[in-house]
Amino acid sequence: xxxxxxxxxxxxxxxxxxxxxxxxxxxxxxxxxxxxxxxxxxxxxxxxxxxxxxxxxxxxxxxxxxxxxxxxxxxxxxxxxxxxxxxxxxxxxxxxxxxxxxxxxxxxxxxxxxxxxxxxxxxxxxxxxxxxxxxxxxxxxxxxxxxxxxxxxxxxxxxxxxxxxxxxxxxxxxxxxxxxxxxxxxxxxxxxxxxxxxxxxxxxxxxxxxxxxxxxxxxxxxxxxxxxxxxxxxxxxxxxxxxxxxxxxxxxxxxxxxxxxxxxxxxxxxxxxxxxxxxxxxxxxxxxxxxxxxxxxxxxxxxxxxxxxxxxxxxxxxxxxxxxxxxxxxxxxxxxxxxxxxxxxxxxxxxxxxxxxxxxxxxx
Length: 364
Fold this sequence. Notes:
Elements: H1 4-16, E1 21-24, H2 28-34, E2 46-50, E3 55-61, H3 65-71, E4 75-78, H4 85-95, E5 101-104, H5 110-120, E6 124-127, H6 129-136, H7 141-164, H8 171-184, E7 188-196, E8 217-226, E9 229-239, H9 246-262, H10 270-283, E10 295-297, E11 304-308, E12 321-324, E13 327-330, E14 334-337, E15 340-344, E16 350-352, E17 361-362
Parallel strand pairs: 1-5, 3-4, 5-6, 9-17
Antiparallel strand pairs: 1-2, 2-3, 7-8, 8-9, 10-11, 12-15, 13-14, 15-16
Helix pairs in contact: 4-5, 7-8, 9-10
């Protein structure tokens, strides 16, 4: 169900920013405010908010009226034969009055700007991405519970992979095992990355038909959602005897992972936590092979604020959830990445949501 209090928080923020009209399109911010996803594809669909008198409504195609009604929010539908312009214009004229400043999300297609301009004429457009991110960054207990449920399902998937992976299986075979286990746990598998041998040194390698061999390092990086909220975990395994220098690399990444988590607390910046992991790996002689940020926020998006990166100088607030995932990647040889999901709880305590750390070596 929608949280009307969230919509009123948005209205307050819009008023502070002197934005008279906001257009929220289907996607994570729409889900956050409306309580469900309503994908309208090429047709216009949005939550439109007038900040002046606090009026809001869903504007949706008539074929989505059933889903609009299920939200419990005010809504207006239009038919394909008429299009959205007339109903948008009527709603804005009746509720917003003269509009000079309109807020859009960066993810909104350019067509949304054109539709609003066609309905009301000229206006100044403003980004409301930062405003919405500041609302979503601190999760309530229900949101944090959804993230934890996603993490539990991912752990089931990684455990199933750890127990079934054998030489001769393809990366795609292992990915299917993981996806099936996540589904059986009641969550939705999203990106399931299985990266074996030299592919383990390519951080965003998608699973292929490459067959896993004895001696391969295998990086398994999995995202899944529960009630649309993401979990995101990575574990690294070796099939049989590890390649030379593997344990030195693995232990260095694990140390960077553990020390970064130990440095997490309310009020420190994402850049500070990133610097801890980066220092460990740099002092270990592999700084040039740590080629990405230390982590990212998780929630209704798999990558959202806060970011655990060198450039993120904002404080980490209570209720924030994010990954810690340092890695070292030796091109054409192997890579190691270890990823946990960390929450700064609403009481200020720090909790690591994942628990599954199996033996690294898969005996064959």
